[in-house]
Design brief:
Layout: H1 17-23, H2 25-46, H3 48-54, H4 58-89, H5 95-102, H6 124-155, H7 161-173
Helix pairs in contact: 2-4, 2-6, 4-5, 4-6
Length: 175
């Protein structure tokens, strides 16, 4: 499994947009957004969220506990992915180290209990954190897939369909 970022489009002069996007301002913004979300969630759960969870009914309180564990696990995985990618971009880790560490990061959709009858009783700010975290997770999974697929695509020779058709015409009409 390849992870991290590779040298600047050195294959046949091609520019890999997934890597340019990941190396540029887009990644910096994503990194800042992700780390701010981690900080915001921690502040909420240790502060106002603790108070809000105490006034919930029994069923909603149990759901809050389960969802907050899912939220913190999801945020730890997202933060790990962001930190590893930043380390790869800045050359702080070798590609082999990044690959080993990325094997421990799970960007799997952990699901949600949003279909639970008690979900509507959860605090609004908490639900917003859940939604924003799932949205970020979806975006990081998409970027991760692009990063993994780009090196695999490079191994295949670049096809030139027009040149192939011209060659067939030359063969067919012998000119």
């Amino acid at each position: 499994m390849m992870t991290g970022f590779h040298d600047k489009g050195s294959d046949n002069g091609l520019v890999w947009l997934s890597e340019r996007r990941a190396r540029g301002q887009y990644f910096q913004n994503l990194f800042q957004e992700g780390m701010a979300l981690v900080d915001e969630a921690a502040t909420y759960l240790d502060g106002h969220g603790r108070y809000e969870s105490r006034i919930l009914g029994r069923s909603a309180s149990m759901l809050y506990a389960a969802e907050s564990m899912r939220l913190t696990t999801r945020l730890m995985q997202l933060a790990s992915w962001l930190l590893l990618q930043r380390a790869a971009i800045h050359g702080e880790m070798s590609p082999e180290q990044v690959t080993r560490e990325m094997a421990k990061v799970k960007l799997d959709d952990m699901g949600s209990a949003s279909d639970s009858p008690s979900f509507g009783e959860l605090p609004e700010q908490f639900c917003q954190l859940l939604n924003r975290t799932r949205n970020l997770e979806t975006r990081l999974r998409r970027i991760n897939a692009e990063i993994i697929e780009a090196p695999a695509m490079r191994k295949e020779p670049v096809r030139n369909a027009v040149a192939e058709q011209i060659s067939l015409l030359h063969t067919a009409f012998s000119f």
